[in-house]
Amino acid sequence: QKEVEQDPGPLSVPEGAIVSLNCTYSNSAFQYFMWYRQYSRKGPELLMYTYSSGNKEDGRFTAQVDKSSKYISLFIRDSQPSDSATYLCAMIWMDSSYKLIFGSGTRLLVRP
Amino acid sequence: GAVVSQHPSRVICKSGTSVKIECRSLDFQATTMFWYRQFPKQSLMLMATSNEGSKATYEQGVEKDKFLINHASLTLSTLTVTSAHPEDSSFYICSARGLSLGEQFFGPGTRLTVL
Fold it and tell me: Which residues of B touch A103 (CB under 8 A)?
């Protein structure tokens, strides 16, 4: 069983839709939770990071963390074709290395 | 967010040669940098963790003599692929950690093709 599970998609939605992306994890040692966006042949871009359970909003993006269920989500409102990319969730293992553990990524396509 | 650069963005080399990739944090000091490789349609695979002034920590299965990492300053880390072979062809991405553990910024990546 992978430590971080993420549906690879692809997820295809019409422009303007609300997008919901999710990850589940198995180990309560994860404390920091991040969402990255990666366009083809580019490095990942940090969208949001959270430490505790709850919601965090930034523009059209809302990150949600539920530590009791070991479940995190990223919501994208008013989705645009430019949002088409692969979205990676990532978590930090709170041992001495503080390494990022990534989900496999969800490919999102927003249709005009 | 903070900016991390990588150079070169693309390199093609002959089998048996060595290739150096630079990773720079442009507007912040990074005591810790990470090196990843990514195959097409796959997630990032951590190769090593690099701390300024000390030896890199390599992940299991990564040959430290083949992938030499140097983190000589708070803004620069280098990855040298020694005696490159076609199977080393991949997308190499570095990242640098900011002040917060949750802030890890990635470079644009380097595409290495070994002929």
Answer: 43
Q: Output the CA angle A7-A13-A18, nearest 5 degrees.
A: 85
Series of mean pLDDT values for 10-residue runs along chain B (115 residues): 91 97 92 91 90 89 94 91 96 88 87 96
The per-residue pLDDT for A1 is: 60
**pLDDT of B1:** 64
Interchain CB contacts (distance < 8 Å): A and B: 57
The reply to whether B107 touches chain A by the CB within 8 Å rule is yes
Q: Give the nearest partner residue to B104 out of A42, A100, A105, using CB atoms.
A: A100
B84 CB contacts (<8 Å, ≥6 apart)?
B13, B15, B16, B17, B18, B19, B112, B114
Rounded-to-integer distance, Cα B103 and Cα A3, Å = 21
What does the CA dihedral B115, B39, B10, A91 come to, rounded to 10 degrees?
A: -150
Rounded to whole angstroms, how far apart are CA atoms B48 and B53?
15
Rounded Cα distance between A108 and A76, Å, is: 11
Closest chain B residue to the Cα of A37, Cα to Cα: B106
Distances (CA, A) of A30 to B50, B104, B107: 21, 15, 24
Q: Are B89 and B17 in contact (CB under 8 A)?
A: no
Give the chain B residue nearest A44 (alpha carbons). B106
